Amino acid sequence: MGVYKIFPSQDTTIYTDYSTLNAGLDSILDLSKNSPFLYPSSSTSRVLIKFDNTDITDALSKISGSFTASLKLYNANVEGIPTNFNIECYPLYQSWDMGTGRFNNIPETDDGCSWKYRSSNQTNAWTVTGLPTGVTSSYFTGIEGGAAWYTSSYGVSQSFDYFTTKDINLNVTNIVAAWTSSLFTNNGFILKNPNSIEFDYNYVYTFNFFSRDTNTIYPPCLEFKWNDSTFATGSSVFITDEEINIAIANNKNTFYDDEYVRFRVYAREKYPAKVYASTSLYQYNKCLPTASYYSIIDLNTNNKIIDFDNVATKLSIDSESSYFRLYMNGLEPDRYYKIQIKSIIDGGTYIFDDDYYFKISQTV
Cα–chain-centroid distance for residue 49? Predict the structure, then answer.
């Protein structure tokens, strides 16, 4: 399988109206715009998120050739967003401490980063002036802070409108490549509203995402995708009829979250043509066409955890059968998942879904 996910080592939200508050252990990451009560033209928040260098290096060690890296955050609540707007993402210029605070803590917790400070106990203010070339910041006069970030070609954005999904899915391949080549240090990402609306009190909306501390199956992740399919077809015989049966082999029904599994996909015609033979035609398995793919679905929510992808989830072929490989550590433990197979056969697209289930257990 050419899909591998890692999860954040740190994430938090920083707020203009609570400029020394730490929210490192909140279950929600907040990109909302609220009615201001402290500053007449400002009530905004930004999200900071970081993935450990060791996890990134480990992910890249599994990849051969080119890859894409996508930053994914899953929507928890949306209310009153503009019809058309963007979310921006940049690599952070300075390091920061996540902290253990929560938004509703009384008294307010300041043992990690906030709008004004990047370290605990209101120390090490963010550097937002006198920045080097290629680094910038933005803030409202009187509430300096909010971090600084690299710009140039490293910024990415995602557009939303009324009809699009509100999950964040950003291609951050260039940023990850810059970190791994030591072009600059991995201090994580900053997600923010565009400058045009960030400090404009006319915009008020709720835009929330699940954090690493969520109790759901939707923590943020950095998803790597690449083409790991191989086609050693040899004497393989391919299916040409859409009326087929699919069987998934090597499915032991329960897997541990540190396993790397090869699933074999066997196919044969439901109604094989009659020929004179001394053995049953039903004993012979064939390969699916090369344009065949898999997806992984969470059984309880019916959400596609890994969607069909023409590159990253393409089935491989060897002399025995079609197959794909799956890293289980990108799936949440103690949940059931379902495999779907999609294949282009004789110009038609067919999806095979015949209760191919398995469960993930956590390694002790």
Answer: 12
146 close to 139: Cβ distance less than 8 angstroms: yes
User: Does residue 270 share a domain with residue 172?
Assistant: no
* 103 and 221 part of one domain: yes
User: Could you give the angle at the alpha carbon of 152 between the alpha carbons of 68 and 144, nearest 5°?
Assistant: 115
Q: Are 13 and 115 in contact (CB under 8 A)?
A: no
Q: How confident is the model at residue 219, as a pLDDT?
A: 95
Residues 220 and 298 reside in one and the same domain: no
Quote the pTM value: 0.89
Helices (H) and strands (E) in the chain — how many of each?
Answer: 3, 25
Closest CA to 144 of 118, 124, 126: 126
CATH of the domain at 254: 2.60.40.1930
- The answer to whether residues 38 and 172 belong to one domain is yes
Exposed e or buried b for every residue in 270-280, given b needs 16+ CB within 10 A?
A: eeeeeeeeeee
Residue 278 reports pLDDT greater than 50: no
The per-residue pLDDT for range 200-211, each reduced to its tens digit, is 888 888 899 999
Integer Cα distance of 314 and 103 in angstroms: 43
pLDDT digits (tens, 9 = 90+) for 233-263: 665 677 777 788 888 999 999 999 999 999 9
Longest dimension (CA), the chain: 88
Residue 42: give the domain boundaries. Answer: 3-225
The candidate with the shortest Cα–Cα distance to 29, out of 223, 202, 188, is 188
Same domain, 211 and 252: no
Whether residue 118 lies inside any domain: the answer is yes
Q: Tell me which residue has tokens 């291609």.
A: 171
pLDDT tens by residue, 126-170 = 999 999 999 999 998 888 999 999 987 889 999 988 778 889 999
* 246 in Cβ contact with 341 (< 8 Å): yes
SS (H, E, C) 10-29: EEEEEECCCCCCCCCCCCEE
